[in-house]
Each structure stands twice: as C-alpha cells, then as structure tokens.
Design goal:
- The protein has five helices and nine strands.
- The chain is α+β, with helices and mostly antiparallel strands.
- 29% of the residues lie in helices and 34% in strands.
- The strands form two sheets. The protein has a seven-stranded mixed sheet, with helices on both faces. Strands 2-8 form a two-stranded antiparallel ribbon.
- Strand 3 and strand 4 (72-82) form a beta hairpin.
Length: 177
Amino acid sequence: MPTSELTFRTALEADIPGLVELIESAYRGDASRVGWTTEADLLEGQRTDPEGVAAVVRNETGRLLIAERDGELVACCQLEHRGDHAYFGMFAVRPKLQGGGLGKIIIAEAERTAQETWGSGEMRMTVIRQREDLIAWYERRGYQRTGELSPFPYGDERFGVPRRADLEFELLVKPLV
C-alpha cells in the first residue's frame, strides 16, 4: 500500500467515537478475529472507552495520531513525550487491513513524529507478554525485549476482563537515533 494514499493528523474531540470503534474492532470480539492483533483469547470486555480515548486526545504532552485513507479512519496510535523518550500505545489498524503492511507505515510515521516533534531518542511501549506473535512483529521493526515486566490491572474492567490469571506487560524499547 503506497504511503501517498495515507494522510496523518492529530485526533480531535470529534474523532473520539470513531477511534473507540476502531480500537475495539482491532482487539476485542468476533470482529477482531478478522485481523491478527486480536486479544479476544486473552481478554473479554472492552479494550478502551470514550473517556480513555478522550484523555489521550486531550493530553498536552502527547497526541493521538490518526491515519486516514480517502477520508476513512484506518489506523491510530498514541504518542506521549516522556522526557528522554516517547511512549507508543493505543495502536490499532482496521482488522480487514491488517497484514498488508499498513502497520509498518504507521509505526514508522510514529517514530518519525516523535523524533521530529520532541527529539526523542527512544520509543518505549508495553505489550502483553503472552502476545508472542505481536512481540515478534515489533522485534522485526527493531524493538527489543527488556524483560522488565509490570502487572496487568486485574479488577479494572476498563482494560478488559482477563480470561487467564498470568497476564503481564513487558517493556519493549527501540533507539530512534
């Protein structure tokens, strides 16, 4: 897919409902099984909600980057400036478009934006440790596993209802310079 077909911009308040729908469709329920990023086998319930997306949109130290093609919201990701690094999160690509190279384009644009906007020398993210296929995808993009783990927020259904008791996040990092 040529990058000329994509346009990037920072999300606005009016984008919140569409962003919630996009993120949910990429990670939860039967719709997410069309793509390969589903977490439906690990978690039930919601992935995010309008309040969570609004908090990212309104965050003054970051932005929610949107990718559109022909006016349609096709992908998004969170970028947050955290001193010497940027945090990457809330990454979603429409399930029917997954596997075609769009994710590579989005993450490259996120890295470029973090460097250009904040001079970030490193990108960091947390990924559910049990998502080996997703971690392997990030490793192919230059991200490295750190072995640094953090607990999943069990009991906070805003992040989903776990289907297993051993979920944890692992920190992945990539130098940008």
